[in-house]
Write a structure and sequence with these properties.
Largest sheet: 4 strands, antiparallel
Number of strands: 7
Radius of gyration: 45 Å
Strand order of the largest sheet: 4-5-6-7
Helix content: 25-40%
Shape: elongated
Low-confidence stretches: 91-95, 97-104
Structural class: alpha+beta
Mean pLDDT: 74
Order of helices and strands: HHHEEEEEEE
Number of helices: 3
Length: about 190
């Protein structure tokens, strides 16, 4: 009898193992089914990432100064040569008509032609003065008393500071009063 009881307990233990395995497999299949169902309902796509938009920085480029006229180039000092100088050939005469002549009319003197000293024009140099930089009020930070600041031409100034030959006399919530070196008042309004 003991053998039959042991054998029946073994069979019962094996059946319980089979049931456990079946339950685990059923749970795994159910989990796979839920995942497939969820991905089908959402289209298999991940939710879109949030889009962060920022304005690109604006570069403030100051106006370029006018071109400066350069003095005429002086020829380099000639090396000492005891041979007699030979006259230079006129290369422009050998060039075809359309090469040197057409380009010289449209663009000025051709860099490939040889000019005689009498033909060269002297360029007069005029003194170049830089135009004054216009003052532009970018913003105002007002505070109590003399603790207000203004941003003029990318520079932070307070009462008493100097900017472009002007002295800051007063800063209010909507304007900045400057005084020039000549004593004139300049008022910059905040836009």
């Amino acid at each position: 009898m003991d053998a039959k009881i042991l054998e029946s307990k073994k069979i019962e233990a094996e059946e319980q193992k089979k049931k456990k395995i079946q339950m685990i497999m059923l749970g795994v299949l159910l989990l796979v089914f839920v995942v497939i169902l969820f991905s089908t309902l959402t289209g298999g796509k991940k939710p879109p990432a949030p889009v962060i938009t920022t304005k690109p920085p604006v570069a403030v480029v100051p106006p370029s100064p006018p071109p400066v006229a350069l003095p005429p180039a002086t020829p380099p000092a000639a090396s000492v040569n005891t041979a007699t100088p030979q006259p230079a050939e006129d290369v422009s005469a050998a060039a075809p008509d359309n090469a040197a002549g057409a380009e010289a009319d449209e663009w000025g003197a051709s860099p490939f032609s040889i000019q005689k000293e009498e033909e060269k024009e002297e360029v007069e140099q005029a003194p170049v003065e830089e135009p004054p930089t216009p003052l532009e009020l970018k913003g105002i930070v007002s505070g109590p008393g003399d603790s207000s600041f203004a941003i003029i031409n990318e520079k932070i100034v307070k009462k008493g500071d100097r900017i472009a030959d002007n002295t800051v006399r007063e800063i209010t919530s909507d304007e900045v009063v400057l005084q020039t070196d000549e004593g004139e008042e300049v008022v910059l309004k905040n836009n």
